[in-house]
Specification:
single chain, 320 residues, two-stranded antiparallel sheet, binds iron/sulfur cluster
């Protein structure tokens, strides 16, 4: 199947996925209620997210996602979806971090699915269902920052350890269960009037806060605000995407959704020379599972390292 056809399939799948909420929104408008979902989806931030996600897919399918393109692409995502909203530039005022991907899950569980949260989740799920974690791999600013650090670590010759996926998945699931328990019991809470309002555990470990330049009341508050992001960057030198594999609930949700994705990394030929180059060069714990064609795999962030490194072109991004 040629690249143009694959991109066509991806676009068709994406259109189909978006059709349901768009239709619902149109029906709402028809009943005289505001079409909130559509309004929010048309904001520059979400349009840019979809455009970058699909552009990444096109580059992956045509095997053009190499370091010369990866670095500017990841810098662009980091800038647009992480840094831009802090600048006093009107064009970037619509690129607010809020709701961050984590908040779109955590705050929605706590306070209900508001439209910006639903749109954020829809964009994330859409880009996950089209390609292997296209949102996490190429759009998310925290993901992009970790990927850039991993590439820098490679350049500096720093040896990174690979995750034991059972361990990292156990921590990620454990944090989600702890979040649900703490939210349900309102052990973490604030008081408004006479009412105790549950707070999110993830607010205390949310690396997305690191992109938000806001004046904190005390030095300690400033440290707490930036610490998760700084720790994430520091650990990204020695393990691949520590925040994604260990903490982020979106990482967990997209890992569960990933097997349904239209495109993924697959072995294209039955005979593999078993040279081990792809496994040795890849940053993730996923490649051995791909070679075994395992149904359940650790997260693939579509970084393209395994595909680009296979000397016989055995691995490819293609329809699963
Ligand atoms: S797992 Fe979370 S932090 Fe990592 S790339 Fe995905 S949304 Fe971003
Ligand atoms: S090396 Fe291959 S399997 Fe691992 S994250 Fe990158 S594209 Fe996915």
């Amino acid at each position: 199947m040629n690249a143009a056809r694959r991109i066509g399939i991806a676009a068709a799948a994406g259109f189909g996925f978006l059709l349901t909420p768009l239709t619902l929104a149109a029906q709402q408008a028809g009943r005289g209620r505001p079409a909130g979902f559509l309004d929010v989806l048309q904001r520059p931030k979400f349009v840019a997210m979809l455009v970058l996600g699909i552009a990444a897919l096109a580059l992956l399918l045509t095997k053009k996602m190499r370091n010369g393109i990866k670095v500017p692409f990841l810098l662009l995502s980091t800038f647009l979806f992480g840094i831009a909203a802090n600048l006093p530039v009107k064009a970037f005022s619509g690129f607010s971090m809020h709701p961050s991907p984590i908040c779109s899950v955590a705050k929605a569980v706590l306070y209900g699915f508001r439209t910006p949260m639903m749109v954020t989740l829809a964009v994330i799920l859409f880009l996950t269902l089209v390609g292997p974690k296209l949102f996490c791999g190429w759009v998310c600013p925290v993901g992009a920052a970790q990927e850039l650090v991993a590439m820098l670590a490679d350049k500096l010759g720093i040896r990174r350890r690979r995750w034991n996926f059972r361990f990292s998945q156990g921590v990620r699931v454990g944090l989600l269960l702890l979040f649900i328990f703490l939210s349900g019991t309102a052990i973490l809470h604030t008081v408004q009037g006479e009412q105790a309002i549950a707070l999110s555990l993830y607010d205390y470990i949310n690396a997305f806060h690191g992109f938000e330049i806001v004046k904190q009341p005390t030095v300690m508050d400033t440290v707490i605000h930036f610490l998760p992001f700084l720790l994430t960057l520091a650990f990204a030198f020695v393990v691949y995407r520590p925040f994604c594999y260990l903490v982020c609930p979106i990482g967990l949700v997209t890992n569960l959704v990933e097997p349904l994705g239209l495109f993924r990394v697959v072995r294209t030929k039955p005979a593999c020379a078993d040279c081990g180059v792809c496994t040795a060069k890849s940053p993730c714990p996923t490649v051995p599972e791909i070679l075994k064609d395992a149904a359940v795999r650790p997260d693939c962030f579509s970084c393209a390292v395994c595909v680009n490194s296979c000397p016989s072109g055995e691995l490819e991004f293609r329809v699963r």
